[in-house]
Amino acid sequence: MQVVEKKDFNKYFRQIVETNNSFVLTTHVNPDADGLGCELAVNRFLKKLSKQSVILNYSETPENHLFLDYDAEIVKFIPAVHANTVLDADVLIAFDMNNPSRLRTMEEYFLRSKAVKLVVDHHLDAEDFADYMFIDLDAAASAEIIYTLLKDLSPGLLDKSIAEPLYAGIMTDTGSFRFPRTNADLHRVTAELLELGVDPTYVYNSLYEQSSLGRVHLLGEVLTNLRLAFNGRLSYFTVTLEQLMRNRVKPDETDGFVNQAGAIKGVAATVFFMELPDGVKISFRSKGDLAVNELAKIYGGGGHKNASGARVFGRKLDEVVPDVLVTAGKILFKEEVITNEK
Question: Which of 65, 39, 66 is nearest to 53 (CA)?
C-alpha cells in the first residue's frame, strides 16, 4: 500500500488514467450519495476519454438516488456474471471506503485481481488493501477529492453530468453544508459545480423531499418512542422489522432518521438502531469532541468522528440495544449507570 500525500494525488491519478484503459468502479455496501456520486462522475469522465469503464456495486441504489443514475450506469455485482470483469480490469477504484469488507461479495475478486487498485476516501482507520490510497481526512466528502482530480486532469471535460453527482455527494456528506469541514474552500468548489449547471433545488428535492407516506408515518411512530439516557446527553430510538413491513418502508428509506433526534436541547450523541433479517444496523451521530467513530469500531463499523455506523450480524435487537448503551456510556460519557427517560 502506498498512502499518497495529498500534494501528489493529481500526479498519480493522471498517471493511472493515462496509462490504463479498462476501469471498474465501486463503493461500499449500502451506498450513499457520496460514493455513488464519485462513481458516476468518474465513469462519465473516463468515457469522455474513450476509456472502458463500468460501475459494479454490491447493493442496489437507494430509490431517492436513482435520479443521479439516469442512464442506468450502475450495475449490481453478481459474482457468476461479473467476477472476470473485476479480475481482468486494468484498474479498480473504490470510492468513499477504506475497508475491503465493505465490498461484501466483491471483496474476494477485488483482492485477487492483479489490477492497479486505488482507494479514494476521507475516513479514518484505512486498511492496507490497495496500491494507492488517496486519503484526505480534511475533505468534507470523497466527492470533493474527486472534483479536484478531474479538474486537474482535464477541466474542459467537466459538465453538468459530472458536476451534479459530485454536488449531491458534497451536499449530503456535509448535512446540507452545516457539518464540520464545511469551509471556504469547499464553498468555492460548490460554486464551480453550480456554474457547471447544477440546480441545487432539484438535487435537494430529489434526495430529501420525495418520501413515501409510509416513511413519514414510520418516522413519526419511531420518534414517539425516542428515549434519552445519561441525564439527557444521549438520545436513542429503534425501528423493528414489523414496523418496516407494516408501513411498507424499505430499510434504505430510513436514511436520515438518525439526524432527527439530535435537535433536543442537551443531547450530545444519538444512536439509531434498525432491525434487519440478519442482525441490526446502527447509526451514530455526535456533536463537538464526542468521537462516535470509536464507538462504531467496537461493533465492526467506522466512519467520521461525528457520524459513523456499524452492522451487527446474528444478534437480536433487544440484545444489541442495551449492549450499545452500556458501551456508549463508558466510551462517550465515562459512566456505567444508564439513566433513562422518555
Answer: 39
Question: Which residues are paired to 285 by β-bridges?
Answer: 270, 307
Q: Which fold has domain 2-207?
A: inorganic pyrophosphatase (n-terminal core) (3.90.1640)
pLDDT in tens, 311-323: 999 999 999 999 9
Average pLDDT on 109-132 reads 94
User: Using 50, 70 and 90 to split pLDDT, how confident is the model at 3?
Assistant: confident
pTM above 0.85, yes or no: yes
As assigned by CATH, the class of the 213-333 domain is: alpha beta
Sheet holding 91-95, edge to edge: 2-3, 132-135, 116-121, 91-95, 22-27, 52-57, 74-76
The pLDDT mean for the chain works out to 94
Where on the phi/psi map is residue 197: left (φ > 0), alpha (ψ -120 to 50), or beta? left
Q: Nearest-CA neighbor of 169 among 332, 281, 56, 39?
A: 39
Question: How distant, in Å, are the alpha carbons of 84, 194, 283 from that of 256?
Answer: 36, 24, 10
The ranges assigned to domains in the chain are 2-207, 213-333
Please tell me whether residue 274 adopts helix, strand or coil conformation.
Answer: strand
